Amino acid sequence: MRIFILTVLIWAGLGFTAFAQTLTSVSYSGSEIVLNFSKPVKSQVFAIGQGKPRIVIDVPTGDVNINGKTLRKGPLTLDGQGGVKRMRLAMRDKGIRVVLDLQDKASLKSHKLMGSNLAIRLNYSGPETQTRPAAVSGPRYFKNSIPYPRLKSSSQAVKPPRKPVIVIDPGHGGHDPGAIGVKGTKEKAITSAAAKELRKQLLATGRYRVMVTRSRDIYVDHEERLRIARAGGADLFISIHADSAGNKTARGASVYTLADRAKNRSKRIVNNQNWIMDVDLAKQSDPVGDILVDLAQRTTETQSEQFADVLLKNLGGTTHLIGNSHRRAGYFVLLAPDVPAVLLELGFLSNAKDEKLLNSSSHRKKVLRSVTRSINSYFDKLER
What we know:
seven-stranded mixed sheet, Immunoglobulin-like, alpha/beta, 26% helix, Aminopeptidase, 18 strands, 384 residues
């Protein structure tokens, strides 16, 4: 069953006064949950599939007053019912965040705005009995009231085996051609051809589920590339590029992983885009929560570095590598803190020899067989 996270952005509708909406009550009726606000609301909906089933509702300007319970003394946890385990509410900037934690077999069916009411319908056939809220020992929020990411608990039941998800990201596209070669080769054409070949090879192994951030000549925003990876539950993200330099003699492949200086930028993106990572901090104090979030990012960093090492070892046997071939940078596509990621530069289009090789389908196949071997080796080690 595919699980979705629904982020609903709510603000005062056009024509209404700009006073903050107050969430005054929540009602359950079968598989429908209705949030009742004091003023009419309007919404934009973003659905992404990642992590445990939940629905996240952000109200940029809002407040809570449910049976006298407010957020003035900190976050609230309320009872759920039916497909909703519990409801968590917290201040976020000038508004509120509402999180509906769902039962394992529940998922989003639809949502509808009806004036000042937001109705959420679930796919859920389980019992309608009410559940007890989780115990909360204290606030679990960053200083700006954004909830901590949620890390998986080590005591979780073992999940059925699944195929690892590989997301291939052909760089550039559409109005953005990328680097232009000595003889006019466009980087976007090389990255597209390489992505198609790598996808073909990976699917032929039968070991992986493979996603591509673009399958035609269109431009995809960097944020969307990361969203695709996280929505698909990516176990590995590979962004494919071709390099360029003023020095025409520079040639060879290289692999980039995230630089230390970019880690704070990664945290800011998590906050600004309302990402919810799979982190269980229910029994941890705030300082321990900070440490766990950092540990989650370090785990991703370590996995990225390990794959980069394996990849460079295999690439070195099939194509020329530039000196200092393992490099670090703050490229946007490397910033997801919970998806191991590398950026692969196949060679230099500014070098005539590299450009000729990159235009050769046989050379690309040979290089990408090295990438496929590297992916196999990486997951072989993880599965031991």
